[in-house]
Fold:
Amino acid sequence: MPGTRKLGRTSSHRTAMLRAMVTFLLENGKIETTVTRAKEVRAMTEKMITTAKTNDLHSKRQILSFITKEDVAKKLFDEIAPKYKETKGGYTRIVKIGPRRGDAAEMAIIELV
Structure:
């Protein structure tokens, strides 16, 4: 079935979780999560970086409506987006790290390349 993954949450809960995870990823450079969540976070992060590469008022407002911390949005425009100016996509990497101990969910590290 095409479209986004539901991740066992209501749409508002899912959006809030993805906003928090994307913000945390842009702030710290990498996070550890399940493979399914990592794939959703990758899609959102790539869109954020691509939008930030434009660096005009419209893109700044779009980014600020999604990213939960202003200083992370500033970092996105000042440091992260210029780094990928010549790159067309593929800003993140997902590395699988095996099953989680409690419930054997497949875990992964998602990081900015």
